[in-house]
């Protein structure tokens, strides 16, 4: 079988995966900034890197998977100016910043659980690693790649670029960045302090109105966005680890800055391989509040969003994501999701069919060849669309054996069952849901919802409320929206 190959964004090539210290593998993936509920776009990264996590374990590696929580909050512009996102939300809701961070961390974990994503080995929080970030900044200053101005510390991009290839990961050229920065027409907070407009903050001085601040050698302040990942990945995975993952939207400036900080501190690249997944778009556009095209995960599961024709289950979302290669764009549409729902039902229904297959003396199937193709699909840069195509070949075989057009002996039956369970449940992380494949229950719920609607229309609110309350007692939640009533388990 083939070795794992992954597309390394740094070298812009497909590379054979060779761990630094086999059988141990260290992975760092950038987690969320916890100041809002997760939306549809937040689901792709966890699903993609969960398959990587599962596949490496399947191959026999001992994986340390680190995913951070940004609970310090970086700045509104994801740059060096503006107001801390978590602090801003805390002011609006009149809560402590850590209440905000905890609430939305819980919300993020709820999404991960619903998608059956494996838990991280370590989930460090930025607020718990202020000391490590300060120590790293001090080293970068000592090495001559950062400077302090009025209580803030900035990374010196020009100085670093004289001896290092700044911009290689993202394909940017320092001279072009400087030319673009020179066209900036508005004066941004802190820009006048910088030696170059492209210098980025490692530490920012906090004004008295800034809620989240810590003591440092440079006075009261808070860390820049990029330094947290450099400090936490180094602490838990070492100066150089195997794989760093994240979305393409983090390529610049976040990951580019991480590399610069780590090299400036330790003279070592932080990761051997860089993996980036593409975005989920809506009608070809990135999801954004300004475009009013965002879909919160809770809305996706309940159907309560104008862009949704119905509610979709967590596994339908997961299957939808896995049907596209992680480096390709993935455009949301109800038509595509409904097709994913049907495909998922067909794939998962085969698990029941397997149990009733008749064992024959002879086999007319080549299960070994199909198993090789499934493995090679994942080994080829996590090609989940090709894997799923092979799994549907397996489903066809299962159905053919069930209807008697093909046969299977006991030895191949054991292989077939293992192949199905390994790739559908263990590697893709799919699972049967309460409503999965239960068309009768769907029909019953439609009838119940219609009876409740009639009760409300006749102003028989006692019956309407009783239906809702009794369903809630058995774990079925009704949600009334503009498009009607939906239910979730």
Short note summarizing the structure:
With 489 residues, the protein is of the alpha/beta class.
CATH architecture term of the largest domain? 3-Layer(aba) Sandwich
Low-pLDDT residue intervals, each spanning 5 or more residues = 76-81, 181-189
- What distance separates the N and C termini? 41 Å
Number of helices: 16
Q: Which homologous superfamily in CATH is the superfamily of the largest domain?
A: HUPs
Total E-strand runs: 15
- Major beta sheet summary: 4 strands, parallel
Physical arrangement of strands within the biggest beta sheet: 4-3-9-10
Describe this structure as you would to a colleague.
This protein is an alpha/beta fold and 489 residues long. It folds into three domains: 5-277, Rossmann fold; 281-427, Orthogonal Bundle (Isoleucyl-tRNA Synthetase, Domain 1); 439-488, no CATH class. The protein is built from 16 helices and 15 strands. Strands 4-3-9-10 form a four-stranded parallel β-sheet, with helices on both faces. A hairpin with a 2-residue loop joins strand 14 (477-481) and strand 15. The protein is globular. The model is unreliable at 76-81 and 181-189 (pLDDT under 50).
Topology:
Layout: E1 5-8, E2 13-16, E3 24-29, H1 44-58, E4 62-67, H2 85-93, H3 97-114, H4 130-142, E5 146-149, E6 152-155, H5 157-161, H6 174-181, E7 200-205, E8 221-223, H7 225-237, E9 241-247, H8 251-266, E10 271-277, E11 280-282, E12 285-286, H9 297-302, H10 314-322, E13 330-332, H11 334-355, H12 367-379, H13 384-403, H14 410-427, H15 439-457, H16 461-473, E14 477-481, E15 484-488
Parallel strand pairs: 3-4, 3-9, 9-10, 11-13
Antiparallel strand pairs: 1-2, 5-6, 6-7, 7-8, 11-12, 14-15
């Amino acid at each position: 079988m083939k070795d794992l190959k992954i597309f390394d964004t740094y070298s812009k090539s497909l590379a054979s995966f060779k761990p630094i210290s086999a059988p141990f593998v260290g992975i760092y993936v950038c987690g969320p900034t916890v100041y809002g509920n997760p939306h549809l776009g937040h689901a792709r990264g966890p699903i993609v890197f969960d398959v990587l996590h599962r596949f490496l374990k399947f191959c026999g590696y001992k994986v340390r998977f680190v995913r951070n929580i940004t609970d310090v909050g970086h700045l509104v512009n994801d740059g060096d100016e503006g107001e801390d996102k978590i602090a801003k939300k805390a002011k609006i809701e009149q809560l402590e910043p850590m209440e905000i961070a905890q609430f939305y961390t819980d919300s993020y974990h709820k999404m991960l659980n619903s998608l059956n994503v494996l838990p991280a080995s370590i989930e460090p929080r930025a607020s718990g690693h202020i000391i490590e970030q300060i120590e790293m900044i001090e080293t970068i200053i000592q090495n001559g790649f950062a400077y302090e101005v009025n209580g803030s510390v900035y990374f010196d991009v020009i100085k670093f670029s004289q001896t290092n290839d700044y911009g290689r990961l993202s394909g940017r050229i320092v001279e072009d960045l400087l030319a673009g920065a020179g066209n900036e027409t508005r004066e941004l907070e802190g820009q006048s302090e910088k030696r170059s407009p492209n210098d980025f903050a490692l530490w920012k001085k906090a004004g008295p109105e800034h809620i989240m601040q810590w003591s440092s050698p440079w006075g009261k302040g808070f860390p820049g966005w990029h330094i947290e990942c450099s400090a936490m990945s180094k602490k838990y995975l070492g100066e150089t680890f195997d794989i760093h993952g994240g979305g393409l939207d983090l390529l610049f400036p976040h990951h580019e800055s991480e590399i610069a900080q780590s090299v400036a501190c330790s003279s070592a690249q932080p990761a051997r391989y860089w993996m980036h997944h593409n975005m989920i778009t809506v009608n070809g556009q990135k999801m954004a509040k300004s475009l009013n095209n965002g879909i919160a995960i809770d809305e996706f599961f309940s159907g309560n969003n104008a862009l949704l024709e119905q509610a979709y289950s967590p596994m339908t979302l997961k299957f939808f994501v896995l049907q596209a290669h992680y480096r390709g764009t993935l455009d949301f549409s109800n038509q595509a999701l409904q097709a994913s729902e049907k495909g998922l039902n067909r794939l998962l229904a085969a698990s029941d069919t397997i149990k009733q297959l008749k064992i024959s003396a002879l086999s007319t199937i080549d299960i070994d060849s199909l198993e090789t193709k499934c493995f090679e699909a994942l080994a080829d840069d996590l090609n989940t669309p090709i894997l799923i195509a092979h799994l549907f070949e397996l489903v066809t075989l299962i159905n053919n054996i069930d209807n008697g057009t093909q046969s299977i002996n006991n030895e191949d039956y054991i292989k077939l069952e293992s192949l199905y369970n390994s790739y559908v449940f263990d590697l893709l992380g799919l699972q049967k849901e309460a409503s999965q494949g239960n068309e009768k229950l769907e029909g019953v719920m439609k009838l119940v919802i219609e009876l409740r609607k009639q009760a409300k229309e006749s102003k028989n609110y006692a019956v309407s409320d009783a239906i809702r309350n009794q369903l809630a007692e058995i774990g079925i939640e009704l949600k009334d929206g503009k498009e009607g009533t939906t239910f979730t388990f």
